[in-house]
């Protein structure tokens, strides 16, 4: 009992700091999401303070519900940022699924190669991490140059694809740039899991006559699954809040073909709508929490690395 009290006393300062640094912004954002913005009172013609708004901001995003100048509730007209919400959700989920799948496949392949014993393995591991170490803004500018109208890609392929203007080409440009940058992160986490597998297991499988494919599917994949699922979890959560890469590489506009939901939050704040931006931030938080819960509860992404739960 005394040891437990000592442990609580030691971790209490850290928990207090985390509560302030992490807990307060979340609570503040949720509180702001239920407050109305300053608005024009139709009776007096004067701007008044917000007050309690209930679910108004959430309905603004989810159902594109706006208040007309006459004070009536109606559907938001084209050009209002809330009309870009569902397209941004679809684009965000599309980016998350495609990039995570590609990065998992490539990361597994790269980790398998780096796990072998060969001359120069340390140099290869260091070189692989370079794209991940480069700041995202630099990565975006680099790929913007590569995907320019007269850039490297079009010159090599002999094409004239508008990689930064055509909607689907722009989306694939973002995916390619993101996969190039973050695949080393996946490979690093998977490599850590591969190195935990005893070499004796592989030797026993080879003695029993198992093929390379059987060894991979029946030994490597099951034993590396905990590390693999944690890598997928971290990368999925990161992809769901993607912002800087599509903004710098393609466009910062909320109706851009590569606009993500995080991009809408920043754009809404730039327009001075901090309360509705807080509501959207809360929706993003709930989305990420739901995805994390599903992956941990049902898909085996157990970050505690303990079996039998």
UniProtKB/TrEMBL annotation:
Known InterPro entries for this protein?
A: MetI-like, MetI-like_sf, Sugar_ABC_transporter
Q: Which SUPFAM superfamilies match?
A: MetI-like
> What residues does the ABC transmembrane type-1 domain cover?
89-295
Q: Which UniProt keywords apply?
A: Membrane, Transmembrane, Transmembrane helix, Transport
Top-rank taxon, per record: Bacteria
Q: Which Pfam families match?
A: BPD_transp_1
Q: Name one GO biological process term.
A: transmembrane transport
Q: How does it sit in the membrane?
A: Multi-pass membrane protein
Q: Does the keyword Membrane apply?
A: yes
Keyword Transmembrane helix annotated: yes
- Using the record, list the residue span of the signal peptide; answer none if the entry has no such feature: none
TM stretches of this protein = 7-27, 91-111, 123-148, 168-194, 215-234, 279-299
Cellular component GO terms, alphabetically? plasma membrane
For this protein, the record's PROSITE patterns field holds:
ABC_TM1 (PS50928)
Q: Which CDD domains match?
A: TM_PBP2
Gene3D superfamilies with a match to the protein in the record: MetI-like (1.10.3720.10)
> Where in or outside the cell is it found?
Cell membrane; Membrane
Q: Which family does it belong to?
A: Belongs to the binding-protein-dependent transport system permease family.
Q: What is this protein called?
A: Trehalose transport system permease protein SugA
């Amino acid at each position: 009992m005394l040891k437990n009290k000592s442990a609580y006393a030691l971790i209490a300062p850290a928990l207090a700091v985390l509560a302030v640094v992490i807990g307060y912004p979340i609570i503040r954002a949720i509180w702001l999401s239920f407050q109305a913005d300053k608005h024009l009172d139709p009776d007096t013609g004067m701007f008044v303070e917000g007050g309690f708004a209930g679910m108004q901001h959430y309905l603004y995003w989810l159902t594109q519900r706006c208040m007309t100048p006459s004070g009536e509730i109606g559907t938001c007209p084209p050009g209002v940022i809330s009309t870009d919400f569902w397209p941004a959700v679809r684009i965000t989920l599309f980016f998350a699924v495609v990039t995570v799948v590609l990065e998992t496949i490539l990361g597994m392949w790269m980790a398998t190669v780096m796990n072998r014993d060969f001359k120069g393995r340390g140099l290869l591991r260091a070189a692989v991490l370079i794209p991940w170490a480069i700041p995202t803004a630099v990565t975006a500018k680099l790929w913007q140059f590569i995907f320019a109208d007269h850039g490297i890609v079009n010159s090599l392929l002999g094409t004239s694809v508008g990689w930064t203007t055509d909607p689907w080409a722009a989306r694939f440009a973002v995916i390619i740039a993101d996969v190039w940058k973050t695949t080393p992160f996946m490979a690093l986490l998977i490599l850590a899991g591969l190195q935990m597998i005893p070499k004796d297991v592989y030797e026993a499988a080879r003695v029993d006559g198992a093929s390379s494919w059987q060894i991979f599917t029946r030994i490597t994949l099951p034993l590396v699954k905990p590390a693999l699922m944690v890598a997928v979890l971290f990368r999925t959560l990161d992809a769901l809040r993607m912002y800087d890469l599509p903004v710098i590489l393609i466009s910062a506009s909320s109706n851009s073909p590569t606009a993500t939901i995080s991009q809408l939050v920043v754009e809404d704040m730039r327009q001075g709508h901090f309360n509705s931006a807080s509501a959207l931030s809360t929706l993003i938080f709930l989305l990420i929490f739901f995805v994390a819960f599903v992956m941990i509860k049902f898909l085996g992404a157990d970050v505690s690395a303990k079996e039998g739960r």
